[in-house]
Amino acid sequence: MPRVSTQEVTTLLHEWSSGNREALDKLIPLVQDELHRLAHHYMLRENAGHTLQTTALVNEAYLRLVAAKELEWKDRAHFFAISANIMRRILVDFARSRRYKKRGGSIKETSLNEGLVRPPEPDPNLLKLDDALNALAKFDPRKARVVELRYFGGLSLEETAEVLKISTDTVKRDWKVAKIWLLTELKDRGKNES
Fold first, then answer.
1. Considering the chain, what is the average pLDDT of its residues?
2. pTM
3. Using CA atoms, how far apart are residues 17 and 159, in angstroms rounded to an integer?
4. Are the folds of 1-122 and 123-194 the same?
5. How far is CA 26 from the centre of its chain?
6. What DSSP string describes the chain?
7. Inter-residue contact 58 to 35 (CB < 8 Å)
8. What number of CA atoms fall less than 13 Å from residue 118's CA on the CB side?
9. 1-122, which class in CATH?
């Protein structure tokens, strides 16, 4: 499928921000494939047996995007950056809710047969990475956004630079420093939990 014009998407986003519902109806088919690509990129990092599917992640993100009426879309890159952030939040919320349920937060009576089937575990690494990324965001918000866009959103160096309105060289530096910082943070958190 040919890449959709950045200007066409930006124009529809501006019209949608202005309250034109028809613009949203035209926009969705243009961005659907890219949203699926983003969701697929996220789902590749999830544990095997994850019960949330790519299409469900896209649908949930779509619902949250439509509900975010107060957003004023800047351009196509801004739309996909927000979409990537929303998908990350959905997966983190999902993992936290599974952890909550695992700890007895939604106790219900089960038969012996149901008790023998073990549900897939929430991904503890996603939760640790999210906590570390939130800590990085307090220290250096731009580097945290670079990680979010590159790692979670699957954006290229050039796309990340476009979204953040910085040079590709700056993205490379931020990406390198952020990876080292996060690795150190995750190791330190691992030591503290032991």
1. 78
2. 0.58
3. 23
4. no
5. 24
6. -PPPPHHHHHHHHHHHHTT-HHHHHHHHHHHHHHHHHHHHHHHHTSPTT-S--HHHHHHHHHHHHHH-TT-----HHHHHHHHHHHHHHHHHHHHHHHHHHHTTTT-----HHHHHSPPPPP-HHHHHHHHHHHHHHHH-HHHHHHHIIIIIT---HHHHHHHHTS-HHHHHHHHHHHHHHHHHHHHHHHHHH-
7. yes
8. 3
9. mainly alpha
Of residues 24, 64, 58, the one with CA closest to residue 38: 58
Show contacts of 167-172: CB within 8 Å, 24+ apart.
171/146
Answer for the pair 136, 182: CB distance below 8 angstroms, yes or no.
Answer: yes
User: What is the residue whose two structure tokens read 């619902």?
Assistant: 63
Give CA 125 to chain center in angstroms: 15
pLDDT of residue 111: 43
Phi, psi for residue 151 in degrees, rounded to 5: -75, -55
Per-domain residue ranges for the chain? 1-122, 123-194
Is 118 a residue whose pLDDT tops 50?
A: no
Q: Residue 44 is encoded by which pair of tokens? A: 């590749």
- What's the topology of domain 123-194? Arc Repressor Mutant, subunit A (1.10.10)
pLDDT at 99: 65
Q: How far apart are CA 24 and CA 16, in angstroms?
A: 6
